[in-house]
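Reopening closed ticket. The problem is back. First fold of the pair:
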Amino acid sequence: MNPLALIFCTALFCILLYHFLTRRSVRLPPGPKPWPIVGNLPHLGPVPHHSIAALAKTYGPLMHLRMGFVDVVVAASASVAAQFLKTHDANFSNRPPNSGAKHIAYNYQDLVFAPYGPRWRMLRKICSVHLFSGQALDDFRHIRQEEVFGANARTCEGGSNAGEVGGSC
């Protein structure tokens, strides 16, 4: 077989395989065609909110943009944003998973990175009742005052010698 034909067939096979493997099962709203690596970042321009308003005239108030390798759905009108934030808030309340949060937060088990659900609601209730209630704030007032006095003392001590600014205490 001709080597040029073999290279062409291999390239065609790789392109078809790439398109077959990257097909999405999730239907996304319409949006501009992204560039290969940077996605739709060049479409945003120097003033992104003006560019998004112009794109909304073409693609509608709900559009799909690709920021690098991350898919983003943009709500460009107040009514669509209200549907996201009020009507469908439980569907969009989680943070995207990342490896740093997984390792630091013990597999997403702390309050900050826990997915929305019964555990997150329980942790939030514990914090609001036992840590941030009026009684708890009164109980820990002396600790906060000691920390503020210590920070002020370190600041005054550091300000008296005209040395390096921004050094560690």
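Second fold of the pair, where the issue appears:
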Amino acid sequence: MVNINDRISAKVLKAFAKVNLYLQVCALKGNYHELVTLFQTISLYDELLMEPSLFPGIRFYSEPAIPWGPGNSLYHVCEDFERETHQRLSLRLTLKKRIPFGGGLGGGSADAAVLLRALGKMFEVPFRVIYKIACKVGSDVPFLLVGGTAVGLGRGEKLIFPGDLPA
């Protein structure tokens, strides 16, 4: 097991919002509707300060105050990352929200994606594992791991980027 304090210094991460330029809601499959959407990241972002901690576990602070627990996408990233990688995290996370709640801009998903991407890089976790965690955390998280422009299918987890489209 790698000590996270040997791997990081404080980092400010920008979690960019997204818009759906096109959205078609299709048939219900299980608990979710299938989608066809066109995602685009935008310049609006939340800031997540990630710092090593001497104490085991996660210390979470936010502005405005957001509860830490099962309703929080960052909580799910930490739980799922520890479960999938067998790493124990010792972090202090401070979130400064700029993306409005409930506006369809993917704020919570963007926060989750930026933390997951940083943890994956820190611990040298293969992208397929990071992607698997992203799919568990939320439908927009897989796209927000990469950002840019993409067509999303399924719950949004199947992505086609412009370079992958036929000319």
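Update: turned out to be a display glitch only; the data is intact. The mean pLDDT is 92. The first strand starts at residue 11 and ends at 29. Please close again.
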